[in-house]
Specification:
- It is a single chain.
- By secondary structure, the protein is mainly beta.
- It folds into four domains: 1-29 and 152-220, Nucleic acid-binding proteins (OB fold (Dihydrolipoamide Acetyltransferase, E2P)), CATH 2.40.50; 94-148, Beta Barrel (OB fold (Dihydrolipoamide Acetyltransferase, E2P)), CATH 2.40.50; 221-289, Nucleic acid-binding proteins (OB fold (Dihydrolipoamide Acetyltransferase, E2P), Beta Barrel); 294-362, Winged helix-like DNA-binding domain superfamily/Winged helix DNA-binding domain (Arc Repressor Mutant, subunit A, Orthogonal Bundle), CATH 1.10.10.10.
- Helix content is 13%, strand content 33%.
- It has four helices and 20 strands.
- It has helices spanning 17-23, 294-311, 324-331, 335-347, and strands at residues 57-62, 65-70, 94-102, 105-109, 115-119, 132-139, 145-148, 159-168, 171-175, 182-185, 198-205, 211-214, 232-241, 245-250, 254-259, 272-280, 286-289, 315-316, 351-354, 359-362.
- The strands form five sheets. It has a five-stranded antiparallel beta sheet, with no helix packed on it. The chain has a five-stranded antiparallel beta sheet with strand order 10-9-8-11-12, with no helix packed on it.
- A hairpin with a 4-residue loop joins strand 19 (351-354) and strand 20 (359-362).
- Helix 2 (294-311) packs across helix 4 (335-347).
């Protein structure tokens, strides 16, 4: 296995700019529960010069002096609140009591006595006052603490396939079933996924403590697959190595490889494949083949040869002496499989083989 797939991949990327913070807020300001989300600065932070007297301004006392504030707004001193534990930690479920149902959603009681909104869009049922709900806490786009009843598809330390929501200048964002999307930084990508496609990822915590994902999943796969030789399995193509073959995550979690000698088709990242277990290695990893056993595949291979003969007007300009690369490119099978298929057709007297010119002629339709 190449060295790159054996490395660990800690994420130390840090986004820059307002757009990045809006999409993936690595550094959000601490919540001030004593201030409305869009309120103006209080006390010494406010330096506006209102006119003295009149109804257009109101005054408050700051450090023993009166300060005027235009528009009738009177800032008031509020005690800053502490952020509850588990905010944007989608591994930590909270059990909160419903205090009130309103036209915008339900308000839940936090352990410190404050309230948090559970919007209608984040509800999976109809909460009743007094009911205890399992929820996750996160901050919405405005930085407001919010609750959701939706559950993440994957949690930290888990492996699975998630849909790609969008590609941005800091990486790919995945839909994990909750309001906050997961970032796959560019350094954690083995190819650039397309929006709407699937990515097989492993979830981890980056250096800032935030949940992130990596597409470099080799070292996170398991070698304890419950399969034996000749079992049929399904998997996700997560890497292609021209020297070794096609790497497949069987059931999205077990080691699987289609060896180079068994690769006759073109594969791409994210492709879902169905294979046969060729062998189970001593280390538990699975060698796979997308083809049937030789005796089971002869019929399909023979049909492929017949189809090519008919497409060429009943004659193939090559037979046993053809180059293996030509056979693989034309029929997506090995040269030995081609020879077995041709031999089967010959015994059924559906074709004639000219050994001198190394050609095959179709007899079936004559």
């Amino acid at each position: 296995m190449n060295e790159e797939m054996r490395r660990s991949y800690p994420c130390d990327e840090k986004p820059e700019g307002a757009a990045a913070r809006r999409r993936y807020p690595f550094e959000e300001p601490k919540a001030d529960f004593g201030r409305e989300p869009h309120s103006e600065p209080q006390g010494p932070e406010r330096r506006g010069k209102g006119k003295r007297g009149g109804n257009s301004a109101m005054s408050v006392v700051i450090s023993g002096k009166k300060k005027q504030h235009a528009g009738g707004y009177v800032p008031h001193k509020q005690a800053p609140g502490r952020e509850p534990e588990g905010v944007e930690d989608f591994n930590q479920e909270q059990l909160l009591r419903v205090l009130q149902n309103t036209e915008i959603g339900s308000f839940l009681a936090l352990p410190d006595g404050q309230k948090v909104l559970l919007p209608f869009a984040e509800q999976t049922g109809k909460p009743e006052i007094g009911e205890i709900l399992p929820v996750f806490l996160y901050k919405d786009k405005g930085g407001r603490l919010t609750a959701t009843m939706r559950k993440p598809l994957l949690r930290t330390g888990e492996l699975g396939a998630l849909k790609v929501a969008e590609i941005t200048r800091i990486g790919a964002f995945l839909d994990n079933g909750v309001p906050k999307q997961l970032l796959v930084p560019f350094k954690e990508q083995i190819c650039t996924p397309k929006p709407g496609s699937e990515a097989l990822v492993y979830l981890y915590e980056d250096k800032t403590g935030r949940q992130a994902a990596t597409m470099r999943v080799y070292k996170h796969l398991s070698s304890h697959a419950p399969y034996e030789k000749d079992d049929r399995v399904k998997g996700f193509v997560y890497e292609i190595n021209p020297q070794l073959g096609v790497f497949v995550a069987v059931d999205d979690k077990y080691f699987g490889l289609i060896p180079k000698a068994e690769v006759f088709d073109r594969y791409h990242y994210g492709q879902r494949v169905e294979c046969r277990v060729l062998r189970v290695r001593e280390d538990g990893k699975l060698d796979l083949s997308a083809r049937e056993k030789a005796y089971e595949a002869i019929g399909k291979d023979a049909e492929a040869v017949l189809a090519e003969l008919r497409a060429r007007g009943g004659r193939l300009p090559y037979a046993d002496k053809a180059e293996a690369a030509l056979i693989e490119e034309t029929f997506h099978m090995s040269k030995n499989q081609f020879k077995r298929a041709v031999g089967s057709l010959y015994r059924q007297r559906k074709i004639e083989i000219d050994r001198k010119t190394d050609t095959i002629t179709l007899l079936e339709d004559q």
